[in-house]
Amino acid sequence: MLSLDHPMILGVQHFSSFSEVDLYVMSQYFKPISYEKDTIILNIGEINDKMFFVEEGVLQEFSHQEADHTNTHWLMPEGSFIYSTLSFLDQVPTEMGIKAIEKVNLLYITKQDLQLVYENVPQMERVARIQTEQTLIVYEKFINLIRFSNSTEKLAWFEETFPTLSNRIPQKYIASYLNIRPETLSRARSKRIRRKN
């Protein structure tokens, strides 16, 4: 069982009230799993039947534009829930994979068990709805950023949204995520440093 001060248990309580019994029931369905750095957790073409919660480490959601080029669609540090949305909800092969870009400690729950949680702890449906709404808001802001902002504005958004990642993960992931070239990212970073000084 997860402790009541576990980050995931504390996190869901921001969105709804739970009894200790509810929290106990819910925690029984989440199981721990770990992966080494550079492990593919979900391959493109597989059906995603698990939702993950990141306890430690960073995950990358990716696709391949070409054989030698990988697109980063999302980065998920500690405290994030992650699954391939279309694949998980509709049980179809995913077009995007999930990879550990650091060693990660995760919790996972299967789609089937998540339905049992919704039945046994109805407040979790409210949590899921709010989490989905917040993710959509961030995603829409991100899409507008990619379309209309310059590299310096993109970097500023990234540093504000993911304050722990800027100097933690390889720059190629950040550049790919922001849809800019690594050398453009380096120039944007130098420009921001000069402005701060």
Describe this structure in words.
This protein is of the alpha+beta class. The protein has helices at residues 7-12, 20-27, 85-90, 111-120, 123-148, 151-161, 171-177, 182-196, and strands at residues 31-35, 40-42, 50-56, 59-66, 69-76, 81-82, 97-100, 104-110. The chain has a four-stranded antiparallel β-sheet. Helix 6 (151-161) crosses helix 8. It is globular, with a radius of gyration of 18 Å. The model has no long low-confidence stretch (mean pLDDT 91).
Counting DSSP E segments of at least 2 residues, the number of strands comes to: 8
Q: Percent helix among the residues? A: 40-55%
What is the CATH topology assignment of the domain at 7-122? Jelly Rolls
Counted by DSSP, the helix tally is 8
CATH architecture of the domain at 7-122: Sandwich
Largest sheet: 4 strands, antiparallel
Strand arrangement across the biggest beta sheet: 1-8-3-6
Question: What is the string of SSEs from the N terminus onward?
Answer: HHEEEEEEHEEHHHHH
Based on Cα principal axes, name the global outline.
Answer: globular
Mean pLDDT: 91
Question: How large is the radius of gyration?
Answer: 18 Å
What low-confidence regions span 5 or more consecutive residues with pLDDT below 50? none
Distance between the termini: 49 Å
CATH class wording of the domain at 7-122: Mainly Beta
Structural class: alpha+beta
